[in-house]
Design a protein that fits this description.
The chain has 348 residues and is α/β, with parallel strands linked by helices. 22% of the residues lie in helices and 27% in strands. The protein is built from ten helices and 17 strands. The strands form four sheets. Strands 3, 4, 5, 8, 9, 16 and 17 form a seven-stranded mixed sheet that branches. Strands 12-11-10-13-14-15 form a six-stranded parallel sheet, covered by helices on one side. Strands 1-2 form a two-stranded antiparallel ribbon. α4 crosses α9 (298-311).
Length: 348
C-alpha cells in the first residue's frame, strides 16, 4: 500500500479536511495516475453530506479526474507512462454480464454491480476513495485517453457532466432534424447545449430564469425560455422530440410531458429527493415516454471525449486550489458558479 494526500469528508456536518489515505500497489492490469485536476460535482456534495443516506465515512469524493500515468502493471496495453488520462464515475465492473459486454458498464448486473469511483465496496476488501487526492490506482479498462486538444481543466467535468448529457443524446439518435429541450443550465445543461447543437439539433433551454440566456445562445441554443412564466411555454406544446431534465428537484412532469411531440421522450438525469410523479394520461396521450439515463459506459465516454475535442466543446470552469474546497461547496449550493469548479491538484 502507498500513502497519498487527500481531502475527505468525515461526517455530514463537518467540513472536508486534509488527511492521508492508502492506495493499493498497482497490479498487472492497473494504472497509477498522478492527478492534475478534479471536477467538483454536485454528487460529491450529496455524498459528503450524506444526502442520500448511504455514505460511509471517511470518504474522499471526486469522479471527474484528469492526470498523467506514472506507472503501469506488466499486463497493461492500453496506456503508457506519460499519457494524459481520465477517470469518471466508476472504476470497476464484472466485464462479463450483458451490460458490460455491450459497453454499458454503469448498468453492470454482476455480483457486485458497478464499483463507483468513491463510496463503493471494492474487490480488494476496502472502500473506493475518489479524486480529491494526489494519486489514484485504477484498472486500465476504466481509464480513458484525454485528446490532446482538450485542456485538462475543461476536460475533467466531461467525465461526468459531459457523458451524462452525451449518452442520452446518442441513445435517442439526436441529429439534424431533432428538436431538443434541456431543462436547467447548470453544470450538466451548459455542456448538453453545446453537444446537442454540435449534433445538429435545434436546442431550447428551459431555465427558471433568463439570467444565463446570453450564455445559452452562445453555447448553441436557438431559444431560451423561463419556466417561471408558464405563458412563455404555451407555444412549445407538442414541439420536442427529446427533453433532458438535468434538475435535481421535483418538477411538474405532467407539464413538461405536454411539450413532447408524438412519440417523444423525457429523460430524467437529475436525482430529486422525492419519487417522480406523472399521470398515466401524460404517457398514453401521443405515446409519450418517461425514461432515465445514468452517465455512460467506457466506449461512449471515449466517443464523447473525441466528439468534444473535434467540436471545441469543454466545460466552462473556475479553477480553485484544494484548500478552497469547502467554500466551493457552499458556492455550488448557492448557485454561485458558471459552470463548474475544478480543483488544481498541484496545490496539494
Amino acid at each position: 500500500m502507498t500513502t497519498v494526500d487527500a481531502y475527505a469528508a468525515t461526517a455530514p456536518d463537518l467540513p472536508l479536511t486534509r488527511r492521508t489515505i492508502e492506495r493499493r500497489e498497482p497490479g498487472p492490469f492497473d494504472v497509477l495516475i498522478e492527478i492534475s485536476h478534479v471536477g467538483i460535482c454536485h454528487s460529491d456534495i450529496h455524498t459528503a453530506r450524506n444526502d442520500w443516506g448511504v455514505t460511509r465515512y471517511p470518504v474522499v469524493p471526486g469522479h471527474e479526474i484528469v492526470g498523467s500515468v506514472v506507472a503501469v502493471g506488466d499486463a497493461v496495453t492500453k496506456h503508457s507512462v506519460g499519457d494524459r488520462v481520465g477517470v469518471g464515475c466508476f472504476v470497476d465492473s464484472c466485464l462479463e454480464c450483458a451490460s458490460c459486454l455491450d459497453g454499458d458498464e454503469q448498468y453492470c448486473t454482476g455480483p457486485r454491480g458497478v464499483t463507483n469511483t468513491y463510496g463503493s465496496a471494492d474487490r480488494y476488501g476496502g472502500m473506493t476513495q475518489g479524486g480529491y487526492s494526489t494519486h489514484i490506482v485504477v484498472t486500465e479498462h476504466f481509464v480513458v485517453r484525454i485528446p490532446d486538444t482538450l485542456p485538462s481543466e475543461r476536460a475533467a467535468p466531461l467525465l461526468c457532466a459531459g457523458v451524462t448529457m452525451y449518452s442520452p443524446l446518442r441513445e435517442w439518435n439526436v441529429g439534424a432534424d431533432s428538436r431538443v429541450a434541456i431543462i436547467g443550465m447548470g453544470g450538466l445543461g451548459h455542456v448538453g447545449v453545446q453537444i446537442a447543437a454540435a449534433l445538429g439539433a435545434e436546442v431550447t433551454v428551459l431555465s427558471h430564469s433568463l439570467s444565463k440566456m446570453e450564455d445559452g445562445l452562445r453555447f448553441g441554443a436557438t431559444d431560451y425560455r423561463s419556466t417561471r412564466d408558464s405563458t412563455s411555454l404555451a407555444d412549445l406544446r407538442g414541439k420536442f422530440d427529446l427533453i433532458l431534465n438535468t434538475v435535481s428537484a421535483n418538477l411538474d412532469l405532467d407539464h413538461y410531458m405536454s411539450l413532447l411531440t408524438r412519440g417523444g421522450t423525457l429523460v430524467e438525469l437529475g436525482l430529486p429527493e422525492h419519487p417522480l410523479a406523472v399521470r398515466a394520461f401524460s404517457l398514453t396521450h401521443n405515446r409519450r415516454s418517461l425514461a432515465g439515463s445514468m452517465v455512460g459506459g467506457i466506449p461512449v465516454t471515449e466517443e464523447m471525449l473525441d466528439f468534444c475535442a473535434n467540436h471545441g466543446i469543454g466545460a466552462e470552469v473556475e479553477v480553485i486550489s484544494m484548500d478552497q474546497i469547502n467554500a466551493a461547496y457552499e458556492r455550488v449550493l448557492a448557485s454561485d458558479i458558471r459552470y463548474r469548479f475544478v480543483a488544481d491538484m498541484s496545490t496539494m
